[in-house]
Amino acid sequence: MSDHTDVLIIGAGVAGLAAAWRLSTTDLKICLLEARDRIGGRIYTLHPPTLSTAIELGAEFIHGRPPELFEIIGHMGLAVAETGGERWCARNGNLAPCREIERVELDLDQILSRAPGPDAPDISFQQLLDSYFADERFAGARAAAIRYIEGYHAARADRLSVQALVHGERASDLIDGHRSFRLPAGYDAIANYFRTAFNGSVDLRLNTIVKTIEWQAGQVRVTAQNALDATPQVFRARAAIITLPLGVLKAQPESPGAVRFIPEIPEKRAAMSKIEVGQVIRVNLHFRHRWWTSLRSTDDGRWAARIDRMSFLFAREEKLPTWWTQYPAQTPVMIGWHGGRGAEILLAEDCPITDLAIDSLAHAFNVERCLIEDQIEAIYRHDWHADPFARGSYSYIGVGGLSALTELARPVANTLFFAGEATNTEGHEATVHGAVQTGLRAARDLLERLSN
Ligand SMILES: Cc1cc2nc3c(=O)[nH]c(=O)nc-3n(C[C@H](O)[C@H](O)[C@H](O)COP(=O)(O)OP(=O)(O)OC[C@H]3O[C@@H](n4cnc5c(N)ncnc54)[C@H](O)[C@@H]3O)c2cc1C
């Protein structure tokens, strides 16, 4: 079977969906190829019937007020909840509200103020700390900054580019990036918005695993395999928008999910070698009750009232050190998280993540493990590291890699256009809104080049 079309879009995550949405308003014939049996990619939302909120296995937060997402939210009239509440810390068996993040953010500003200028050689975050904050009196701030950076960026401090961090911080400041929001109804509303908007004008093929992309100026031939019955498929087009995750683009040619370019594009390989694929562990524990609000005797009402407002819990001594609730929603859900080097180690050792999560939580709250086990209604988790169509969580930029984003994003022969979070050159890589921006950019570039 061979299909002819004007534009092939590879990957129906938000980057591919946004590109398809933009192109669907033109006369072009568009075909969107997706390996999974669903759209959304690293947005992966579950809707358990016994919960009033959604469960996110991938992206959860909207970082700041990016117009790309807030326009859609406004258009759909979706409810948005700002994450607020109180941050708590568990340390040496004690649990109390703390100002960990506020302190780290202040320290981080100070640390990044020592970053080399754009014309000086780039260094890693670890090198920056070692150069200017090696003194013993900075030991606490140094450790906290590494924990924060590795957890948030899913990055290794010894590889993460300081230039890229500064670039990202500036971009984030422009969209109120210190605030964060959630869609209680689920992040999948964004993916569904695009799909509904282009429904009927884009040929969406789920369960279509792309294997090779053969290209020459003005012509693309894609071979794929049907995920359900393994039948081979061929698609032809004048141009393609490629939104594959960085982990997939970097995968060894014969590994599951990998895609081969024929001919190879050496500039892309070189660019990719400077951008890293981060790893995270995320576990959603759905309990019968909000057991943590009734741990102390009822006469200690003040404590109970405060812990009811707990949004984040930092338990740095634990294997899963970061936790959050769905505050302001009062749901019986807690999410455990680890990113960067710590997550890489646990994943490499194939550790029993659910067990670690329960142990971490029991230890942080100083309660018996069985109390938590008895409360579990369901555990939801997706292993992004093992997922052949993601091969990691999200990208971060390695030392000297800031310009590699531009190279990765650059169209090839006015025929191949690249999108996806790892091609965001505006400082918004690794985010949903950043991915949407790249899909819109690739569609715009393609329209410009095809009309010339
Ligand atoms: C655990 C986790 C938590 C996150 N938290 C946040 C957050 O809170 N806030 C935030 O803004 N961002 C977050 N992110 C990042 C965010 O999810 C991504 O940046 C964004 O969704 C990426 O969109 P994309 O379209 O670039 O890639 P993807 O969503 O990965 O889309 C690429 C698509 O290509 C498909 N594909 C792959 N291989 C093939 C193939 N061979 N053939 C055909 N199709 C293929 C995939 O199935 C996928 O659908 C998180 C990510 C993870 C994993």
UniProtKB/TrEMBL annotation:
Essential cofactor(s): FAD
Domain named Amine oxidase: residues: 14-447
Keywords: Auxin biosynthesis, Oxidoreductase
Pathway entry: Plant hormone metabolism; auxin biosynthesis
Keyword field contains Oxidoreductase: yes
InterPro entries, A to Z: Amino_oxidase (IPR002937), FAD/NAD-bd_sf (IPR036188), Flavin_amine_oxidase (IPR001613), Flavin_monoamine_oxidase (IPR050281)
Enzyme class: oxidoreductase
Catalysed reactions listed for this entry: L-tryptophan + O2 = indole-3-acetamide + CO2 + H2O
Catalytic activity, EC: 1.13.12.3
Biological process annotations from GO: auxin biosynthetic process
GO MF, one annotated term: tryptophan 2-monooxygenase activity
Binding site for FAD: E34, A35, V210
Sequence similarity: Belongs to the tryptophan 2-monooxygenase family.
Protein name per UniProt: Tryptophan 2-monooxygenase
Taxonomic lineage: Bacteria, Pseudomonadati, Acidobacteriota, Blastocatellia, Blastocatellales
